[in-house]
């Protein structure tokens, strides 16, 4: 997997720039949280077709899985809602052990 893009504060501007360069881009947005969530609702990450990404939906604990799932949405063209929580086996597997739950919408950016 590629390293995160650096020196980019605006996720949407970076996504637009990548798209203007002809890259496929997906956007992941935190749409709901419960309990001790690592990032607030509205937090975003943009993922380029080569797995380069900018932004954060979890402070780092689930970004790897979100990037992988975003790449899948670029292939299928279908948005997906992901849910992570401390009680889920997946949460421990991807590192979300903060005690909260989050839902993340992942969707390909249509140009």
How would you portray this structure in words?
This protein is of the alpha+beta class. It has 3 helices and 5 strands. The protein has helices at 11-20, 63-76, 89-94; strands spanning 25-34, 44-48, 53-55, 80-85, 101-108. The chain has a 5-stranded antiparallel sheet with strand order 3-2-1-5-4, with helices on both faces. 32% of the residues are buried.
What is the string of SSEs from the N terminus onward?
A: HEEEHEHE
Q: Tell me about the largest β-sheet.
A: 5 strands, antiparallel
Strand order of the largest sheet: 3-2-1-5-4
What is the strand content?
25-35%
- Give the overall average pLDDT: 83
Helix content: 25-40%
Q: Report the span from N to C terminus.
A: 24 Å
- Uncertain residue ranges: 1-8
**Number of H/I helices:** 3
Number of strands: 5
- From the alpha carbons, calculate the radius of gyration and give it in angstroms: 13 Å
Structure class: alpha+beta
Q: Give the overall silhouette.
A: globular
């Amino acid at each position: 997997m590629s390293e995160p893009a650096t020196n980019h504060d605006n996720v949407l501007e970076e996504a637009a720039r990548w798209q203007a360069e002809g890259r496929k881009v997906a956007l992941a947005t935190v749409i709901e949280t419960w309990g001790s969530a690592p990032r607030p609702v509205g937090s975003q990450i943009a993922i380029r077709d080569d797995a380069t990404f900018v932004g954060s939906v979890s402070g780092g604990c689930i970004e790897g899985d979100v990037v992988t799932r975003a790449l899948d949405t670029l292939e299928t063209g279908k948005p997906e809602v992901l849910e992570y929580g401390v009680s889920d086996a997946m949460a421990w597997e991807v590192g979300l052990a903060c005690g909260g739950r989050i839902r993340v919408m992942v969707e390909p950016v249509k140009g």
